[in-house]
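Re: that chain you flagged

S.,

Sorry for the slow reply, it's been a week of failed gels. I finally had a moment to sit down with the sequence you sent. For the record, here it is as I used it:
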Amino acid sequence: MKPSSDASAEPANTPDSPSGRLQGFAYWCAMGLGSLGFLMAINQTFNLKILGFQPLGNAYLYYLIGIFLAAAFLCFPAWSGARHRVSWYDWPLALAALGACGYLGYHGLIMIQLGWDYMAPIEATAASAVLLVLVLEGVRRSRGGPAKVSVLSSGILGSLSGSVISNILTTGPITIPTMKKTGYPAHYAAAIEACASTGGTLMPPIMGAVAFIMASFLGVPYSEIIIAAFLPALLFYLALLFQVDIYAAKRGLKGMPEADIPSLKETLKDGWPYLLSLVMLIYMLLFMRLEAYAPYYATVVLLGISMFKRRHRLNLKRALAFIWDLTTSVSNLVAILAGIGLVVGGLSYTGVAGAFSRELLLYADGSVPLMLAAGAVTSFVLGMGMTVSACYIFLSILLAPALVSAGLNPLASHLFILYWGMMSYITPPVALAAITAAGVAGASGSKT
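Prediction finished late last night. Pasting the structure tokens below so you have them in one place:
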């Protein structure tokens, strides 16, 4: 992740945050919650035991959900009319999230030891009920949420953030005007950007957070995931390049004038810190196997190098904007994943996940092509409106067992689910990526 390079950007009014929504006390509360959450994550990851604090088991997750869910109520409006201010009811919701999760986190170890899954005290049941309502409200605020949060980062070969919408908002303001200058219609330029950003989730070496989740689910090294994903991602981008080339040839479009093309030397001179941090990140992921620590080390290196470059130096305003970006982004993800957790938990405890797999096998009647077609449709429909990571987590529990039971390769089955789930970003009726890119291009959403 890189700090904002716009020194004039106001932290409380970043391009992807609700315009002017957080000011004064509300802004600093959200920033404080975000900073506390990041400090807790660092403390837990590196086992620092700051002030003797080291939550065990599920307690850490409860605390983290409470902090970022509270921040989500402050950052994201309940309805469009409240996008310019924090409403009075957002404060009690935020406090309720902290209170409910704080209670459950404090009793996290006890609930495991005493089996609260089967018989819990009335206070725990009440806190869980409150958290359930709060999570549903937080999710109601994810739909399209990634388009409102700030940009985390953009990968050179793929996505570092795992968010299709973030990729569009990062690269779109540069690539879309350039395509329009060379003759591409606005809606076509937006469509190209939407497809390219969607494919970035599948493109090694990073692939976003979903690759780490997949490696954890399958119990395989991260290197196996990126090797298996490379060929499908390459085919995806080759098809996109052919489409763009054919369109340009058909309409006689030319490239940019040579005078307008930036110098490679100057580009590398200014951007080498980002390449260095990316190389370092890949090395630590693939060779040192430091999946939990690598993002922290790479970010520290990037921030350290930026201090030696005047244009990218991290001053107070940029540091606040950096924390703001992290707070809103993680709050959005926590709200989404908490909602997915409700669905996954319900499917697991009721046995619906297993029943779905059995029914899919039954109706396919042993036909692998029929099962793949049904799986593709299921992945596509259920993936609508979710982030790629949330979509994959949901479908890997619901659909993957059926594909594996039919004798298909587990890794290929999981990549198949990922691919069809992410396609909903560029296909109606949801098409979040296409709509977002259309907004950047100033084009018609339906045409895009």
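What I noticed first: The chain is about 65% helix and 0% strand.

Talk soon,
D.
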